[in-house]
Amino acid sequence: MQAGEDFEALVEDNPEDVAALLERLDTEGTDVAALLNGSSEETNIDLGAASEASSPLSDAIDGNEAELAEGLESLAQIQRTGTLDDLLELSQVASLLMGAMDDEMVMSLSNLASELGGVADTAAEEDISRGLEDVLHSVGDVSEEEPEPVGAIGFAKALRDPEVKAGLGVALALVKALGRNVGTVEDTR
């Protein structure tokens, strides 16, 4: 009875080493089942020596039992909630996307990001930022109330309004600057 209890304690303390020993014994032709039942004459096997053999797995486990237990519990938790399946699917999608991206696509995305960065830098300039803010506020003001249709006579009357004059001045300056930045300007005077 004592040998059976010793064997169980050995298995509990060193399951990998015992499994390796049993596999080796089985490979050598030893009747493992008879050995475990105690009916074999060759029962003088030094299980202590077998458990002393060090393996990379047992070395990694030694001293890290608490961390491994916490890690396994965390893994079990994300498995129970289905998050593990979601993570696996996400990794498969990412792998497919990475496989589908070729050098041309990467360069194109890189160029687009660079251009967007340039636009953001330009928009961050103080004068441009203030002008864009004015335009956006004006668009917001116009969308609060429904503009009325205006004919030629209404347009001529509106030209006397100082706000319309100021707005037309901004619009003409914007059109002039746009023409200057677009490229060649042909003199049409």
TrEMBL record:
* Name assigned to this protein: YjgD
Against InterPro entries, the record matches this protein to: DUF1641
Origin organism is Halapricum desulfuricans
In terms of superkingdom, the source organism counts as Archaea
